[in-house]
Specification:
With 293 residues, the protein is an alpha/beta fold. It has 10 helices and 10 strands. α5 packs antiparallel against α6, α6 packs parallel to α10 and α8 crosses α9.
Amino acid sequence: MKALLCLLLSTLTASAAVKVGTLHPILADLTRQVGGANVEVIEVLKAGSDVHHFEPSAKDIAAMRGSVLIFAMGKHLETYLDKLRDSVGAGVKVVEVGRPIPSLKMDVSQEVFVCCPNHAHNSIDPHWWHSAENMKRAARVVSDELSLIDPANADSYKAGAKAAAKRFDELKRWAQQQISVIPRGDRKLVTAHAAFGYFCKEFGFKSLPVLGIGRSDDISSQYIAQTIQAIRDNKIKAVFPEDQANPKVLSEIVRSTGVKTGTPLIADGTAKEAHTFETMLAHNVRAIVEALK
């Protein structure tokens, strides 16, 4: 009888959990940090996936059945959200967690490499999760949305967001300490795409994207020549490929300039070995410090 009662209580507890779908592994981890045992997270986009080419399948939609919330990154990253809203129905709230976070736009007047308009489509950098301060904002958004759905556990969600924010603050301090060994004149982050603007703003780097925001490598030989000259003029020490991105153009630049190639950085936060904010930032900071110190 006692065993049966424990099983019944366990079943009731499990059924009481708020079911939440997530469209990015960093959001899945953040939702678990904030929600704890009160949430059941359904990871639709998993580690190893490509956020730029992903769209939920019928199987993914079925897996989210019963969810009351779906968390998306927002800022135009998930171009399929309108279609998803139609598929899941009006009873499921799709929350763009990045929407209230201030956006960074490419400012060509402040870039060393002035990308052509096609490479800066929309101009907004959607990669807001490269900032500890933004992750703290995101934790509050997740907490507020969970509290609206499940007000009985609002205090628990608030406490979860505060605990997550404390961890993010600690990680930011660690990153600042690591980065302090890089001479200020060498804090220039040369990458293929404009995916690290939020990181650069938070940690005092100059963002130098070669190709802009898009994933296209379709640029002219003249543009490559201009980029190579800019690298020489600015005494760049290293360039950084990105995981899941074609390194073709950067490889050509490296051959022509002789600059160091750094360890690939994690841009989208979906790498199998680093798909939480903590593991992603730690990987990127170590790679950048190793190449530029």
